Request: fold
Amino acid sequence: MNISSYKSIIFDCDGVLLNSNQIKTEAFYQTVLPYGEDLARKFVNYHRENGGISRNKKFQYFIENIASITKHDLEVSNLLSRYGSIVVDGLNKCEICEDLELLRNKDAQVKWFVVSGGNELEIKEVFKKKKMFQYFNGGIFGSPKSKDSIFKNLIDENIIDFPAIYLGDSRYDHEVASKYLIDFLFIHGWTEFDDWQNYCASQSIKSTEKIKNLADFWT
Reply:
């Protein structure tokens, strides 16, 4: 894999650019804890098994399939608001990946994107505070749109230049990249996907621990 051959490099955010997976897992747990510890633990398990999916869909699943609460009794918007107030402070304080500026300077003409399951406005604000925003000349994209719809829109509008590669830390990241014929590299250093090694082996997916190791794939 030669990273320098790609015209577009697309990054997931949580677990790839930010060490934020555990922060978000705890925020999901605290958001639904008022409905009972057992339901909160079930929801966290669902969240971990479905990395990369937007919080909107996860909370909809919680209401309909875990808590079995009618829409009249609980709106997704209420959970999103509660979750957002919990998670923002943690994101502002969390660790960022190393050597991002060094990698960006290797080829300033390559398009860099973020395609995340996290909230788009939230990510942009955090990246501005952490002085990361300027690296992503292709754009920063996130929920409420799904990764699937974001990729479709970017390709339909000829915004992503091919060949392209997506750097992610979940099964869903790989699945959506494959759907749109985008190469994939698994970043495992901060992943919460427990079975990532077996999955990568079964799918012949290359992996590396951290973003800073991309230099090993640069020729």
